[in-house]
Structure formats: C-alpha cells, structure tokens
C-alpha cells in the first residue's frame, strides 16, 4: 500500500508544479482532480470496506502426512466489490510450540471468495489458525480499514501407530486368563474338577458325577484382572514426540484388541484430568490424545517429575529417547 501512496504523492507534487508553471484553468482543474480523487475513492469504497468479513475454515482432523486444507473466505455484502483485502494468518502448534505465518490477499472480492492452503501435517499436534491482521483497502490503495477478525479454527493431526519392538514379544504372551472366582457364586464361566473337602454341595455336577462315578464340581471362574500401566513422558523434539504418541496408539490398541484393560499415566500432565486414563475402547484413546495435544509438551517437561511407585503386573514406559521399555 505504501507504493500507491508514493505514486500518489509524486502525482500531487507534479500537479502542484504544473499549476505553478502553467497558470491556466487546465492546471487548476488537474490540481483539483488529483486532490479530490482520494476523497471520492474513499467515499465509494467505504460501504464495501465496512461490510467485508473474513472467515477461516479448516479440516477438523487428519493423520500424519495426510491431506488437510485451510480455506480463507472473504464475504462482501455490498453490491460493489471490495478493491483489495489483505490477510495475515498465524499458525501455532500448541503441542510442539512451532509457529508460522503466511499472508494472502483478495482483489475485487465479491459475495464469497475463497483461497485454500495446505495444512502441514508432518508432525502431530493441535494446529490453531488465527487471523493476525486483516485490512480492507480502498480503490486507489491509499486508505485501509481493519476488518473484523474471524474466529480461530483448529486442526488435530493424529499420530500414525508405530510398533514398539521392545514390547511386541511381551504382548504375544499376554492374554486373558480365567481364575477361580473368589467366594464362589454365579458365573457364566465354569471349570470342572474333582470334589475337594469344603466345596459347597450346590456346586456338585450330579449328572457328570453319576456318569463318571466320581464327584465332579463346577467351579465358577472369572477373568483375571491384570494391572497394566503405560507411562508416557512427553518431552523432546517434534519427531520424538511423534514417535512416543505413535507407540502409545499402537500399544494401547494392541491391549484393547486383546480385551486387556490398562491405565495410561502421564507424570508431566498439565492438569489433573490428564494424569491418568483408562480407555475402554479406541475412540476414548483418541479423545485422550486429543486432550494431550492441547498443551505444549515443552512446558510440561519443565516441571519436576513427581515420585511415583507402581505395583503392576506389566509396566510400560514410553520415552522419546528410548522408545518403549518394559
């Protein structure tokens, strides 16, 4: 816009010099035209400048390296187009702390104009797009008015599952086991065994006992409750954070596929609600990761690690530098 003002200033200086040198009606008419043209331009441009609105539209979520778009939309409700709209958009990854800025502009924007940019999905995180500055310029490019800023939009980039080789062999051996139900009672699963002293008479399987000439008891069984905990340490570079979240998705998904309940523990959680999570299924796991990506990992890593002790059948630690350890 400054170059338009410089050009206008040169024209104004030329008109003044022309009026001083050539004292005639033509020079006076040229000077009045140069002086009054910006005023007329501002008056005719003002309704379109005031009725211009900016809106941001982004893909809600995507996986790493998938296609995602951010669309910048300019709406003008006046019958005449807006001469030029300049917009500067800021992108911030709340998880990794990375920030970038890009600018775009619209010429003679009418009812609804759109420009789309690709969203970088190289790293996981929550990408928040906000309009840093938006200006509507008159037809001569001399005056500019700020446009009402659009609401920020966010795009969640989810990790791609990364197999944790250190614990893959442990998962192959893990499965649900049936153990005798403490205190007896009703159960859908039973195990047949010989009668032992102290067994209740109601548990005797009379039909099989008469058939095998031996007292057989139906012992109620229940699924063994294994205490599995996964500790996640979110600190490191963006590539290391991608690796940790990818391993978390793979490991938790592998446990859920085997119907093994587990707890995810985050010692560096910025809020109490994120300290632990016991996802019953994969959608709840994704929702927990979505909540984690709303906070910056570098800030959580700066906090001192609290003293914690775990008494668990299986305990997995996911670190950015070591991967998954048992």
Describe the protein's architecture and organization:
The structure is a single chain. With 326 residues, the protein is α+β, with helices and mostly antiparallel strands. It has three domains: 1-158, Immunoglobulin-like (Sandwich), CATH 2.60.40.10; 165-176 and 225-325, no CATH class; 178-223, no CATH class. It is built from seven helices and 17 strands. The protein has helices spanning 2-21, 25-50, 165-173, 206-212, 238-257, 282-292, 297-301; strands at residues 52-58, 61-63, 69-76, 82-93, 99-109, 112-118, 125-137, 144-146, 153-158, 178-180, 189-194, 216-223, 228-232, 263-265, 276-277, 314-319, 323-325. Strands 2, 4, 5, 7, 8 and 9 form a six-stranded mixed sheet that branches. A five-stranded mixed sheet has the order 15-14-13-16-17. The chain is rod-shaped and about 135 Å long. The chain starts with a helix and ends with a strand.
Observed structural traits:
rod-shaped, 7 helices, 3 domains, 326 residues, single chain
Principal-axis shape equals: rod-shaped
What is the chain-wise order of helices and strands? HHEEEEEEEEEHEEHEEHEEHHEE
CATH topology of the largest domain: Immunoglobulin-like
Low-confidence stretches: 300-313
Determine the strand fraction and express it as a percent band.
25-35%
Counting DSSP H or I runs of 4 or more residues, the number of helices is 7
Cα Rg: 35 Å
Explain briefly what this protein structure is:
With 326 residues, the chain is an alpha+beta fold.
Helices and strands in order, then pairings?
Elements: H1 2-21, H2 25-50, E1 52-58, E2 61-63, E3 69-76, E4 82-93, E5 99-109, E6 112-118, E7 125-137, E8 144-146, E9 153-158, H3 165-173, E10 178-180, E11 189-194, H4 206-212, E12 216-223, E13 228-232, H5 238-257, E14 263-265, E15 276-277, H6 282-292, H7 297-301, E16 314-319, E17 323-325
Parallel strand pairs: 2-9, 13-14, 13-16
Antiparallel strand pairs: 1-3, 3-6, 4-5, 4-7, 7-8, 7-9, 10-12, 11-12, 14-15, 16-17
């Amino acid at each position: 816009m400054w170059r338009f003002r410089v050009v206008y200033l040169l024209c104004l200086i030329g008109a003044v010099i022309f009026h001083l040198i050539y004292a005639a009606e033509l020079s006076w008419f040229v000077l009045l035209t140069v002086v009054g043209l910006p005023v007329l331009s501002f008056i005719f441009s003002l309704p379109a400048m005031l009725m211009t609105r900016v809106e941001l539209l982004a893909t809600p979520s995507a996986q790493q390296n998938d296609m995602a778009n951010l669309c910048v939309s300019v709406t003008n409700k006046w019958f005449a187009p807006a001469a030029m709209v300049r917009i500067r958009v800021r992108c911030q990854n709340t998880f990794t702390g990375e920030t970038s800025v890009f600018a775009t502009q619209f010429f003679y924007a009418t009812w609804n104009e759109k420009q789309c940019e690709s969203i970088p999905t190289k790293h996981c995180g929550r990408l928040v797009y906000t309009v840093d500055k938006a200006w509507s310029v008159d037809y001569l490019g001399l005056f500019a008015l700020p446009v009402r800023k659009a609401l920020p939009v966010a795009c969640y980039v989810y990790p791609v599952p990364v197999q944790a080789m250190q614990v893959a062999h442990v998962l192959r051996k893990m499965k649900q086991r049936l153990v005798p139900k403490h205190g007896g009672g009703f159960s859908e699963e039973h195990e047949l065994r010989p009668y032992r002293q102290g067994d209740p008479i109601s548990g005797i399987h009379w039909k099989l006992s008469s058939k095998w000439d031996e007292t057989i008891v139906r012992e109620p069984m229940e699924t063994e409750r294994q205490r599995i905990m996964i500790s996640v340490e979110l600190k490191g570079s963006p590539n290391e954070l991608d690796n940790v979240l990818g391993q978390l998705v793979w490991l938790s998904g592998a446990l859920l596929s085997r119907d093994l309940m587990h707890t995810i523990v985050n010692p560096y959680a910025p809020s109490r609600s994120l300290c632990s999570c016991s996802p019953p299924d994969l959608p709840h796991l994704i929702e927990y990761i979505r909540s984690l990506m709303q906070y910056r990992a570098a800030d959580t890593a700066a906090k001192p690690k609290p003293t914690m002790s775990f008494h668990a059948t299986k305990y997995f630690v996911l670190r950015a530098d070591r991967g998954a350890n048992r």
